Amino acid sequence: MRQIIAIISVLAVLVLFQNCEEYKSQSITLTEENSPPNQIEAEEIDGVLVYNQQCMNCHGALVSSTKRNKSFALIDTAILNVPAMSGIKLKPEEIEAVALVLKDAPVVGGGESADFQCDPVTPPSNSKLVRLSNYEYRSSLERIFYRIKPEITQFMNSELRLPEEAKKEGFDNHVLNLSTDRLEGYYNAANGIGTLVGSSEVNREKVFGSSCVNASNVSDSCLETFLAEFGRKIFRRPLNDTEIASYINTFKMGSGLGNDESVKLLVQRLLLSPNFLFKVEVEGTAESNNLLKLSPYELASRLSFALTGASPDDMLLEDVAENGLNDERLLFHARRYFNSTRGQRHIERFFRQWLSLETISGLDSNDMFPGLSEDDAKNQLLDEMNKVVNNEVFTKNSSYKELMSTQQGYVASDFLKSIYKMSSSENGFVTLPQERKGLLTRAAFLFYGHDDSHPILRGVKILEDVLCVPMDSPPADAIAMRTPASHLLSTRQRFTEMTSPSACIGCHSKINPVGFAFENFNGLGMIRTQEQIIDNFGQVIATHNIDAQTTLELGDDTFSVNGGSEAGERIAVSDQAAACFSRKVFRGVMGKQETQNDSCAIGAMYNEASDSNKSVLSIFEQIILSDNFKSRAY
Amino acid sequence: MKWYDPITRRQVLRGAGASLGLYLMPSILPRAFADESKIRLIAAFTANGKRGTGFYPEVDLNRDLGQARERLLREINGEMSFNLSEDFNALKEKLNIIENLSLAMTNRRAHSVNLMLGGYREDKPAIPNTTIDQILAYSNKVYTTSPQIRSLNLRCPGISSRSSDEVKTISFRKVGSSVQRVNTILNPKDAFNLVFGGSQPSTGNTGNTQAAAAMHANQKKIVDQVFGDYQSLKSNRRISSEDIQTLEAQMTFLSELQEKVNRSYTSEPVPPSSSCQVPQIPEISQTHNGSSIDSEANLRKHIDSQFDIIEAAIKCGHTRIATIMLNAQSDKGRYSFLGISKGFHDLSHTSSSSAFRDCGKIIRWYGQRVARFLKNLDQVENPSTGETYLDNSIFLWGDGQANGNHSTDNIPTLLAGGGAGYFKTGRYLKYDSSRAYNNLMVTILDAFGLGPQDYEQFNLKNEYNPDGTGFGGYARSNTKNRDWLAFTPEQRRAILPYLKKS
């Protein structure tokens, strides 16, 4: 018997390793015949290692490389001809190894390509079980407890303590960690809200929607009615009979301690349930292995979080209960949300996160704007962007390209009028000068709180956020590697000099041209034609005319532009930017990175984004109506 | 209800830790540890670096120790340096000013909050790291029984500075394969409630006591029921294996919550020691939630209140580990009350004598708050020996960088307290050549009796142990002399010379 087990074990091991050749095939083995002369033993070249050492800084991690499927010949040609790659010295076999791993690299999405290969049979990418983000948690509580809104709002402003969300690409719904601190925050919030609802007869009646909860002996029917209505708001689906019975039991745990304790316990448990804190999607129809078509309630939940950042409102829940949620009704509710205040605030928020505006700086010094607080400055900048986005997207129903090349601004403060050099009589929406075409020339996007223009930061921001070019962090010794540059030079001259070493130029050949195009704006977002170099004693020691002439590389094309407005407009109409925006909408709505499996959905969104006759909202509608949105792979 | 208690996960969590209190939970009166002389760690952070010329005493180092030189602080007349004002004069015998400690990693990011207690930078640590305060907080060598608060982590808002997008903690805890930021408490009232409870326990009223007991029992049941809700969801066949891991992580945290709920409601109050005095409930005019303060008086009050709560928590034995961020990660505030019109961060990047002076003024001001705290802590703890609480503590005043240029070379470091007899004190110590800042972390851990097995993530072959709870940026760098892997294990494990009492 033991011998049989041993044989089976050996066979099992052999079966396990029979595919190892596939892995080996990604490396080139140098035999004695083709190895360099003084190489005695055979050596394997690790294509992944070579890629990581030589290519990753500019082209991103292998799994999301922008250069997938590049052949030996293409790589070899690029090394010979692209100036930024002149510092790369690779042997032919190393290039071959890199080409092989680029060919075999798994695709996990990302990248700058507008080439979306749609295979309709491919299921959507997997969706993990995720919790509500802090924003969604707060918004949902506001919606669920709207009958005692002032009290809930006050509670959340003064008592709610949740760990901050980590952000990825500006979005706060991608990295949803769990922790002891977070759970305790939920516990304390549930405790506090339970107490808030339970401790007052008025609040109990408001939340229950009936005075039956204030009876000395609360009936089961009272609780069943409450759980049917209120439980559905919290779980975003009706509670089943077992759950209702269990929650009635929780209510009765407070017997003898007063209705306040019973109500508190009930609310507390509901708010700590995974069915509230997590986006649970398990009730749909199985379409194939590990692929569910979402139930109408789950779809309603996705829709609400995607377009309002909150759990579904009563109207949607009622409609689902009566009619289910077909495409027509889905679109109806999507458009209803677009017309709601909460929905519009949410889309404005998407734009702020997409363009990384929520992390903009305030003023470093108030010498120029005495009396203006830093937070006020930031709020005014964001307010303008919100107003412009709202007007373009919701009032004018603009296309993506129209939005990205709009000349409209909104000035409601002396601060913004100073930045835009508008007269004091101008108020509200204004048409800005030619140099201000597009969202990328708005003060909020250009602002760093001081004069310095930060072309490198601007370049990286546009490449990453607007063009989806993955940029890795600078190497560890970037500061040590840069070439010293005279402080008498202009900003552009200085950064050109500093980033000239071969170790830097690979990435900076992409970053610098984009950032330099916006050199006609200082770090406050003001138009400038000259740059003054000022010493520590406030004396002007050099003056330079601004040079914002540069060449942009967009897709396979290059364009000569002069200034941020031209650059912004050229970027706005590029396929690469439209593709990137589609990816970003997908990420913002779905709360995850796309993969190759999402190409159909993003491709459909891209068609809308690149069509000047289609509105920004239609891009959002495309994702809502996609199979990726309506189903869950797990 | 049987609690979910996977061994491996709990083993991992045992080594990690964070403490955010249950603000709303009733607390108990202070109680003392069995051995009151046990060592504590308190770490205070200020941002934007300390210009060396303002921080180090401008004196000759008159004693050659071999690989370092030193000067006794008592030999310095008057204030020791511009940053360390006369407020520190009474503490000279209790301090160690250390020069020439450098991060053994290259500078990748400007304002790293993890440097001070982790010796690494947060953006791209090669290996997830736990800061030493959290290693200590979750070490069963430090706490042989479950403490009321493993670590008390507080922060202050800074002056007129925006900090909403900055990292608001200097404490990090590895959980599984990720590093989590340990939450910090901004509002002194919340800190007070965590340490001392929002209200005193009721006494003498049997009816109330019974009701309170029943309510406490209900809280335990609620957490039990919620746990059952998670189990129910976990058993759904449409939950993927990855999702099960998510739910199990939450269930582990629920288990920890249950422990806290049980402890909070079952602990018997112990009379406080004579030195333990509950401070006044802080009266802070503004409720701070990421916002800032606009006057010197309010800022001082806020910082002092937070320090008072740490002091009381230490003296009452509620915790042995505390951290406090005195300002924001890259404080951009304008300290107009010091006659400074430009933002601190902006100034820290300016190379002019006036900027140096202005930065120095700001650090000096914060130093005065630190000195006040240290003097309050320097009260007799053990009447028979005369040891003070400060003598039995290690206090570290640090930063996220060395100076305003984001350098991590020569990080100005102030230690206070004797570490319960571990440290020689009263000295300005300058190493002849740069020493790894991580060795300061090792030294502090050594003072607590922790060895490599308690914190290292690597074995002697430099093989990474994913379950390790270690700290430090053990990453390979382009610069050889900053490459941690170029250090031998013995070098990585070394304590700093000339600090420990022989």
Could you explain the architecture of this structure?
- The complex is a heterodimer of chains A (634) and B (502).
- By secondary structure, chain A is mainly alpha-helical.
- Chain A is globular and about 85 Å long.
- In chain A, α7 (134-144) runs antiparallel to α8 (149-158), α8 (149-158) runs antiparallel to α9 and α12 crosses α13.
- In chain A, a hairpin with a 2-residue loop joins β5 (285-288) and β6.
- In chain A, the strands form six sheets. A three-stranded antiparallel beta sheet of chain A has the order 5-6-13. A two-stranded antiparallel ribbon of chain A has the order 1-2.
- In chain B, 31% of the residues lie in helices and 13% in strands.
- Chain B has helices at 7-15, 52-55, 115-118, 132-137, 188-196, 206-234, 241-266, 296-315, 344-348, 353-377, 437-447, 452-455, 489-493; strands at 40-45, 63-64, 68-72, 95-102, 152-155, 172-175, 178-181, 321-325, 380-382, 387-388, 393-398, 413-416, 427-436.
- In chain B, the strands form three sheets. Chain B has a nine-stranded mixed beta sheet.
- In chain B, β6 (172-175) and β7 (178-181) form a beta hairpin.
- At the A-B interface, α9, α13, α19 and α24 of A face β7, α6 and α7 of B.
Greatest interface by residues involved: A-B, 68 and 72 residues
Strand order of the largest sheet of chain A: 5-6-13
Number of helices of chain B: 13
Distance between the termini of chain A: 41 Å
Calculate Rg of chain B over CA atoms.
Answer: 23 Å
The count of helical stretches of chain A stands at 31
- Assess the beta-strand content of chain B as a share of residues: 5-15%
Q: Note the quaternary state here.
A: heterodimer
The radius of gyration over CA of chain A amounts to 29 Å
Mean pLDDT of chain B: 78
Task: Indicate the low-confidence ranges of chain A by residue numbers.
Answer: 1-43
* Unreliable runs of chain B: 1-37, 122-127, 198-207, 267-272, 476-481
**Helical residues, percent of chain A:** 40-55%
Structural class of chain B: alpha/beta
What's the count of strands of chain A?
13
